[in-house]
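hi!! sorry for the late reply, been swamped w classes. u asked for the two structures so here they r. pasted raw, havent cleaned anything up. first the sequence of the first protein and right below it the tokens
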Amino acid sequence: GELKVFDGSISFHPIKLKIGTSTDLSWSANLDLDKISLEKAQRVLSKRPAKAGGRMSGGFSVQGKGMNWADLSSSVTGDGRFKLEKGLIKGFDLKGQLLGATLTKLKQKIKTIKVPKAKKRTFKLKTIDESVTLKEGKIYFKEDLKIQTAEGPATFNGYIGLDGGIHLKSKLMLSAKRASQWLKTSLTAPQSFPISFTLGGNLNKPS
């Protein structure tokens, strides 16, 4: 069958149900997503304003339990391929978050350093097209997710939950030129150097 939902469509073939008690329902299916609006899906399913956007597509072989979204989003397991086009997170300032965390540590030693506040920016992603594993409602990328950010190339490894939760171990290759712009001072350093961090929180409020 096919459902038109969130400005896109979900096709399922076949879907198998196993009913135990009135509250115990297990299911399995092959799902094909086509250009689902991440913003609309997140807003409806989480029942709160959505800051993540983009169009989701992909094919998945999954199984899970329950009939409501809370049960479904915490039980889904399987494999597939996930594609996100024109992805973005509104109000997330990667530069400000990293700079603030770094300078906060330096301020413990150098009291005169000023820690700037993160600004309300839009964190833009190019197309993501990756093989994934779903486990207990969390989407794990099988290989490091590589993204070209405005601050430089970055890799991410971990999961994004169907409930919007994020836990991604990340590494950003920051150029000396960009670091000089951040700190408003001239730096003598290698052409680029890695900054390791963990991206947590959720899609509405990454940290």
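now the second protein. again sequence first, tokens right under
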Amino acid sequence: DYAGKYLTVVRKTNDERHLATALNLHGILYCHFDDYPTALEYYLEALAITMRINDPDIERWIVCNIGLIYIQLGNFPSGLHYFMQGLVLSEKIADVRHQGFCCYNISNAFLEMGNYSLALNYGMQSLAHNEKLGYLIGQANSLENLARIFYKLGDTPSAIEYARKSLQLHETTEFKRGKLNMLFLLTKISEEQNELHQAYQLALEALEL
């Protein structure tokens, strides 16, 4: 109710930047309720405004929010399209952290589309951006993504190396889901290498989380 009233008031003003921010907020709220079509309507209206007033600072967030919806819906080419726009905009305003975020999602999209070479390229860029900032959560996510890419490429030693690095950082940041993802990957690799005792120990560790 408050958000709706807020948007109604903002629509009556001539502050388009404020309106774009309010519309973006509405999109985020509808995403939380899994109402992606309605969220997309608000995001696209907000995007049109930011493009009209040439505001890359807000526009980069909106295009990435649109990209996230398409990724969630499994439409990876469309998600990729919007994250590429987000990357250009974040480079324009020299926001390194947002560049890392965009590269991470671009890498994931290419991974899902089976383009492992480009997934690896953008995954490495994402890791480099996050390492430059010392952003541990971003580093852990980038390493996790790269571990999955190396696994798909059949480079098992690199997959293990990056998975272990990611697991260590996820433990530092106490991100349980990330830890589970890497423990499951390491368990799978151990099973494939017939290291059943190690696979059993990793599986037990995952179950204890």
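hope this helps!! also noticed smth abt the second:
The CA atoms of residues 79 and 96 lie 20 Å apart.
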